[in-house]
Design a protein that fits this description.
Rossmann fold; 34% helix; alpha/beta; nine-stranded mixed sheet
């Protein structure tokens, strides 16, 4: 074989092989400007583990909360002597001073958040195949370009949202339309029976037709079932602590997980994942687990199925099922 031809073949192989061998790149975001879930470190650990166990299908990089977030002081409540009591008035004065200190510290910390999220600029997102929001919160999350991010997904990329991803940008229609709903409220953590609507989908295949879990269940607003491919839902839910006490449920359509198209892109969302023992089969706490290890393993399989579907690496329909659950 002539040398120029050999060089051409080797160059062709060198250019082609990485396209097949390189894992898809996912940028995982766990930054919050609202409520911060204590399970976020566990979620980060498990997502890194799932990537390592994916057989080279995908890798993850993290955009994490900057260190030094100031803690907002709690406003004192009047005691039994009322809001004019000397002790309460002193507590209010202390609260005012603590609030000034907090606001000054927040002004110093906020630019660090914006700097961390520069990774989600449209220019930098060209280096990634997907973004995953794991328990992000806050309408004020300072993305460099919110509409640019939504448009990036629509261009043919992937977005995966877990639990509080719907408690993010609730007042930004572009994001709500992309993910498919916005968080409205939740009741107490309860045991529920999730109806699995698509066992042929990669996110539903690991689960039984009826799947029992214990978690914080979100109630949604701006959800239109006719615009999503439903994966998991509930037909009834205990909405309050009083409901739990009296074992009383309210019938309805409570979406739990779905997938959908956004332009040329793919979106997968699951509202589960509030609790550490939903993520990690080895997690322990002093009061014991509410979810057995097997449920955590099933949740991981549900999640990785959704991730791989969003990356177009696993089977499943994204076509809306109309008004049906």
């Amino acid at each position: 074989m002539k040398l120029p031809l050999l060089k051409t073949i080797l160059l062709t192989v060198a250019l082609v092989l990485p396209a097949f061998a390189a894992p898809k790149k996912i940028l995982v975001v766990t930054v919050t400007t609202g409520f911060r879930h204590s399970s976020i470190p566990t979620a980060e650990k498990i997502l890194a583990q799932l990537a390592a166990e994916s057989g080279g299908k995908f890798s993850v990089e993290f955009v994490r909360q900057p260190a030094g977030e100031p803690k907002k002081p709690a406003q004192p409540r009047p005691g039994k002597d009322g809001d004019k009591a000397a002790a309460h008035l002193l507590a209010l004065e202390k609260f005012k001073e603590e609030t000034k200190t907090y606001e000054a510290a927040l002004a110093q910390w906020w630019p660090k958040v914006a700097e961390a999220l520069r990774s989600l600029s449209p220019a930098n997102l060209r280096n990634y195949d997907a973004v995953l929001f794991a328990n992000t919160t806050g309408d004020e999350l300072p993305l460099p370009d919110r509409q640019g991010f939504v448009d990036w997904v629509a261009s043919g990329k992937a977005f995966i949202g877990v639990h509080a991803a719907t408690d993010t940008f609730k007042t930004f229609p572009g994001y709500v339309g992309m993910i498919g709903a916005a968080f409205k409220t939740h009741g107490p953590q309860v045991t529920v029976e999730c109806v699995n609507h698509d066992q042929a989908h990669a996110a539903g295949a690991p689960l039984a037709k009826s799947w029992k879990v214990f978690d914080e269940i979100y109630q949604m607003k701006n959800f239109e079932r006719a615009k999503v491919h439903g994966l998991l839902s509930l037909e009834s839910l205990m909405l309050s602590a009083d409901d739990v006490k009296n074992r009383r449920t309210t019938a309805g359509d409570y979406p739990v997980a779905w997938c959908k198209a956004h332009g040329q892109g793919r979106v997968f969302y699951t509202s589960l994942g509030h609790r550490d023992d939903m993520w990690d089969p080895t997690y322990t706490e002093k009061d014991g687990r509410k979810n057995p290890p097997e449920v955590a393993r099933q949740f991981q399989q549900h999640l990785i199925g959704g991730i791989l579907w969003a990356l177009d690496l696993a089977p499943g329909s994204g076509t809306p099922q109309g008004g049906a659950k």
